[in-house]
Write a structure and sequence with these properties.
Blueprint (H helix, E strand, L loop, with lengths): L1 H15 L6 E9 L2 E8 L3 E2 L8 E2 L2 E7 L4 E6 L2 E6 L5 E2 L1 H4 L8 E5 L3 E5 L6 H12 L7 E4 L6 H14 L4 E3 L2 H5 L1
Parallel strand pairs: 11-12
Antiparallel strand pairs: 1-2, 1-10, 2-3, 4-5, 5-6, 6-7, 7-8, 9-10, 9-11
Length: about 180
């Protein structure tokens, strides 16, 4: 009899345990010295641009380290560090490891910078920003800075978004051209 009850108890415990949606750090933008961020829940529901101190899906944005691109958030009293590229919750030591994919950085003139990871949920926020840039007169030059290991399909996605927004002037600057 106890053998029949054990699977039932285990199933009950697993079903009763709370399930938390994964918060993903999709990308960030620095505009006039102020960082803005895009988060998503399970890579589906996207926040739009948020500032430090704002909330999304029960997550508060606490701090951002521009150099390491690490965003500190808090949910239900628990602090987490998120990395922009892969969107997984990591400790600070894990997030600075060499194996992570580097983001594509998009500079808008000299004033704004957007760092885009490799997740499709960032696309809507990026489209909205590029549409605003395309509507400005005169249009600033967009500079795309992929790392040397950026996959071609990621770069073409960004280029397609820029073209679709109606942006006429852009430049591509690789890591090699930045160091020379």
């Amino acid at each position: 009899m106890t053998m029949k009850i054990l699977p039932f108890i285990i199933s009950f415990i697993l079903c009763a345990a709370p399930t938390y949606a994964e918060i993903v750090f999709q990308g960030y933008m620095i505009t006039k010295g102020k960082p803005l961020f895009v988060l998503s829940v399970d890579k589906e529901k996207t926040s739009g641009w948020l500032a430090i101190g704002q909330n999304f899906a029960g997550v508060s944005i606490l701090a951002f380290d521009t150099k390491s691109e690490l965003l500190t958030v808090e949910k239900d009293g628990t602090r987490q560090v998120l990395r922009v590229v892969d969107g997984k919750v990591q400790t600070a030591s894990e997030a600075t490891g060499p194996s992570a994919t580097k983001p594509i950085v998009i500079s808008i003139g000299d004033l704004e910078r957007i760092s885009v990871g490799d997740d499709a949920a960032m696309v809507d926020a990026l489209k909205a920003k590029l549409a605003l840039v395309a509507a400005t007169e005169p249009q600033p030059t967009i500079t795309i800075s992929p790392s040397n290991d950026t996959k071609f399909d990621r770069l073409t996605t960004i280029l397609d978004l820029i073209r679709a927004a109606g942006i006429k002037r852009f430049d591509i600057r690789t890591e090699t051209s930045r160091t020379n």
